[in-house]
Design a protein that fits this description.
Elements: H1 4-12, H2 16-39, H3 44-68, H4 76-79
Helix pairs in contact: 1-3, 2-3
Length: about 100
């Protein structure tokens, strides 16, 4: 597993494209381990991995929202405090994401 402190420092040095790729990677990990936990609910190592990947995903989504606008409704409050202007930003798929 990655060191959480190192992953936070790494995220702050990523450009928009790199941060979006990181979000996609940790989102994939979260989805896959959720499926595994459906059939192995007592696997404490998998549960810890799920918690860590979820934490990294949430942190990266908040960081992305603060810098470029929200990708999910969950992070809209963090980046849209002054006005609803995130609609004016390029959509992720317009920049080769998603």
């Amino acid at each position: 597993m990655n060191n959480p402190a190192n992953s936070n420092q790494m995220n702050s040095r990523m450009n928009r494209h790199q941060l979006l790729n990181h979000i996609n990677q940790v989102s994939f990990a979260v989805d896959e381990v959720k499926l595994y936990l459906d059939t192995h609910p007592c696997d404490t190592e998998a549960l810890e991995y799920f918690r860590e990947m979820s934490r990294q995903r949430n942190h990266a989504l908040k960081e992305y929202a603060a810098a470029y606008g929200p990708l999910t409704i969950d992070t809209a409050d963090d980046s849209c405090a002054e006005r609803w202007n995130w609609i004016n930003e390029p959509w992720p798929w317009q920049e080769g994401g998603c």
